[in-house]
Design goal:
By secondary structure, the protein is mainly α. The protein is 45% helix and 8% strand. It has helices at residues 14-28, 64-82, 99-113, 117-130, 140-147, 161-180; strands spanning 35-39, 45-49, 52-57. A three-stranded mixed beta sheet has the order 1-3-2, with helices on one face. Strand 2 and strand 3 (52-57) form a beta hairpin. Helix 2 crosses helix 3.
Length: 201
């Protein structure tokens, strides 16, 4: 088993993780009457129709934080899609004006709400109820400090609030390098983050 650094070492069954994530989504305001949540290899959200918003989650048996923050993130996307007034359905006003704005809502729930003290003052009790053995001895204060710890991570979706944005910046610069011809695809894996020859704001 793996530990997150605060004693979360043990088995976190997927069934209980899914139950907790569904409770989180319900608490956020996600309507399971107008949407659903299922399992997949990578979390995502899609709006099939005005009353059919679907999101997916994945579960790691040794680390519940991945699923928890994915639920908050995808729940933010889903709430955005479920939040359009019925009177605007079937119009262009019932679509996000940009993927950036959509992502902002997801990141708001994941980070500003989901990593806050008041949020976990309520939800930590429920987490302990579902995983009493794995969380035994972990204090709410230690848990909150851990989920807000800044550290390097090679995977964007599991990066912390600070370095997540650096993942996006590096990817953007690499893509610009490819488009401008300053970087070849065969050299991508070993490339540093190049600076564009044009100003990007």
């Amino acid at each position: 088993t793996r530990t997150t650094g605060i004693g979360l070492a043990g088995v976190f069954p997927a069934q209980e993780q899914e139950a907790f994530c569904r409770e989180l989504l319900t608490g956020m305001g996600f309507s399971f009457v107008r949407g659903r949540a299922d399992r997949s290899t990578h979390p995502f959200t899609t709006m099939i129709g005005e009353d059919d918003v679907r999101l997916t989650l994945r579960f790691q048996p040794d680390n519940p934080l991945s699923a928890i923050f994915a639920a908050l993130h995808e729940g933010g996307h889903a709430l955005y899609d479920q939040g359009f007034p019925a009177t605007l359905h079937d119009t262009l006003l019932a679509e996000a004006p940009s993927t950036g704005l959509h992502e902002a809502q997801a990141r708001l729930w994941e980070n500003n709400v989901g990593r806050s003290g008041p949020f976990w003052t309520f939800w930590f009790r429920r987490l302990r109820e579902l995983f009493p053995d794995a969380i035994r001895g972990v204090t709410p204060e230690a848990f909150l400090a851990e989920i807000n710890r800044v550290r390097n991570d090679l995977v964007r979706v599991s990066a912390d609030e600070v370095t997540y944005n650096l993942h996006i910046l590096m990817r953007f610069r690499l893509e610009v390098g490819l488009f401008e011809g300053a970087l070849q695809a065969k050299d991508l894996a070993a490339a540093p983050s190049p600076r564009s020859s044009r100003r990007t704001g």
